[in-house]
Write a structure and sequence with these properties.
There is one protein chain. The chain is an alpha+beta fold. Helix content is 38%, strand content 25%. It has a single domain, classed as RelE-like (YaeB-like fold, 2-Layer Sandwich). A hairpin with a 5-residue loop joins strand 3 (66-73) and strand 4 (79-86).
Length: 126
């Protein structure tokens, strides 16, 4: 069985804390988009099967046994959620969320990378 079809998505504290920063209407739309993405991921065979509206994008600088990707969510798809997809595992972790502004938010992207690295180190220890 393909690991995508049995994927389990976990939410870590940094992700939950980021969601709490948004107002309730924004949070509700983000939650709906996340649920839809998780269904789409489980139904997909490869990244090209993900609906284009998510603008699924991998962070290329990751050099561990996972992929770090972002999707567009929320009102006007003006928010980003970052998910850590483990290689050779069905586990996936929502690590961070942020509001997209005019630039690509390099600080937020760097923050997501830092969180993922710490999570990876923790997972490797256990």
């Amino acid at each position: 069985m393909d690991s995508r079809s049995i994927a389990i998505f976990y939410r870590i504290a940094s992700f939950e804390n980021a969601l709490q920063e948004f107002d309730t209407t924004v949070d509700a739309q983000i939650e709906a988009h996340i649920a839809y993405f998780e269904q789409a991921w489980r139904a997909s065979n490869h990244d090209g099967d993900i609906p284009s509206g998510f603008c699924f994008e991998a962070y290329l600088q990751v050099q561990q046994a996972y992929r770090l990707c972002q999707i567009r969510v929320g009102p006007g798809h003006g928010y980003r959620c970052v998910v850590m997809l483990l290689d050779r595992s069905s586990a996936a972790y929502w690590v961070y969320a942020f509001k997209k502004t005019r630039n690509r938010q390099p600080k937020d992207m760097a923050r997501a990378c830092e969180i993922a690295e710490r999570l990876w180190d923790h997972l490797e220890e256990n």
